[in-house]
Amino acid sequence: MDRATIAGILTGVILLGWALAQGGNLRVFWDPPSVAITMGGTLAATLMSFSLSTFLDVMKVAKNVFVRKHGDIKETIATLVSFAEKARREGLLALDADADRLEDPFMQKGIRLVVDGTTQELVKSILETELAFLSFRHKVGQRLFETMGAFAPAFGMLGTLIGLIQMLTVLDKPEQIGPGMATALVTTFYGSVLANLCFLPIAKKLKQASEEEIMIKEAIIEGVLSIQAGDNPRIVQEKLMSFVSPKKRSELRDIRRSPSGMGEVMGGESAAQGRK
Question: What does the H/E/C string look like for the chain?
Fold first, then answer.
């Protein structure tokens, strides 16, 4: 569970609700026709901009905003370094059984290609092609939510214009002008909230998650090619260190290999105890 997303949503909702409650009457902020115009219009325009299958697929993966499951760069580096050590010691074929236990399909494919004797150029081409299409699919999801974030305020303004037009028809009744203006502005309020507290943050969160996942997969490509080339495990580790910030590199300096050949990153006191 991504705690930052949950914290952001709760903070926004609580502060917004508190601010609205200071005005006294929360009922003035509820208007079903305004909801229908804003939500219905945004949904209709989005469906016109994307295919139905694309829309449904993106809605399914939107849960990734709340659940982070694209992996850990430290664990990835540790695993690749352990594979490099085992390949140097026992040969590439010894990685076949370990590949079957990998949970990451991308790394599993790379290791199996290496074990099968695929040329380095072809391994690189296959993995980079898959990564390119993964990036493309991720960008589609980001664009969809960015599109919804652009349409929501627009339909909010459209609802406001409708309300103003209706209000102008009762100028001879001053007592209805104030409530009518409030109702008209509620639609713009809905559009702004949906765009800035929902759609646009989701788009940015998906973009960040995509960048992190792509970075991990780029590290996997570099590690797999280094293993195939027979590089020293220490060289493999130093190459992969470039994918993490200098601040986090100290945590990756100590890597302990388990008997199964899968790496574990040892940091802090755990690393100190592992060296005793």
Answer: CCHHHHHHHHHHHHHHHHHHHCCCCHHHHCCHHHHHHHHHHHHHHHHHHCCHHHHHHHHHHHHHHCCCCCCCHHHHHHHHHHHHHHHHHHCHHHHHHHHHCCCCHHHHHHHHHHHCCCCHHHHHHHHHHHHHHHHHHHHHHHHHHHHHHHHHHHHHHHHHHHHHHHHHCCCCCHHHHHHHHHHHHHHHHHHHHHHHHHHHHHHHHHHHHHHHHHHHHHHHHHHHHHHHHCCCHHHHHHHHHCCCCHHHHHHHCCEEECCCCCEEECCHHHHHHHHC
Residue-wise pLDDT for 39-49, tens only, equals 999 999 999 99
Does the pLDDT at position 161 exceed 50?
Answer: yes
pLDDT of residue 24: 67
Distances (CA, A) of 109 to 26, 58, 112, 210: 56, 25, 5, 20
Q: HSE (CB half, 13 Å, CA atoms) of 113?
A: 22
Q: Do 217 and 106 form a contact (C-beta atoms < 8 A)?
A: yes
Instruction: List, for residues 8-32, the tens digit of each pLDDT value.
Output: 888 988 988 888 888 767 777 888 8
- In whole angstroms, what is the distance from residue 45 CA to residue 241 CA? 45
User: What's the whole-model pTM score?
Assistant: 0.78
CA 24 – CA 26 distance, rounded (Å): 6
Q: What percent of the chain has pLDDT over 90?
A: 41
What is the model's pLDDT at position 1? 60
